[in-house]
Amino acid sequence: MTRKRMIVALIPILGILIVAAIFFYPAYPFLTSSTDLSEESIGPFHLNEQLDEAEFASFGNYKKSDQQGGYGYLVEGSHYVKTNESGEIVSISIGRGFSTSSGIEIDDPVEKVIDVYGDHYYTYREMGLGDAIVYIDRDNARELTVWTMDDHVTGVWLNER
User: Which key words are in the record (predicted)?
Assistant: First the structure.
């Protein structure tokens, strides 16, 4: 088989691979416009700042665990903070008792989330967690995921991308 025939024969296979990649790898994160999350925080926790373990302990008994690339700090039913090995916060998840710096908290209606953060988001469903509304800040490499069930907020996760 000549080189030209081999290239022509590979074109349909390449096309099938591209279509399969699009089908199995969602494109919506790439197509979602950026939202400014540079000032976003959750409770007293800010991304890229040092976690003060003494301050963290003031919220209740917590468990510290080794995580890939850092540590996880969990106050059961309240919040979870992940740090890198240097102790800088890279991820924050909340339950009841905290809100985002923009005022979103557990049990708020989905409409409030969209009013606060805008229309530039994508959604997906995760079994057991509900529906996710995801905002991306490309300039600051951040992502805000708001978990919902029955059109109300059930959890919020702010993380580095």
Answer: Membrane, Transmembrane, Transmembrane helix
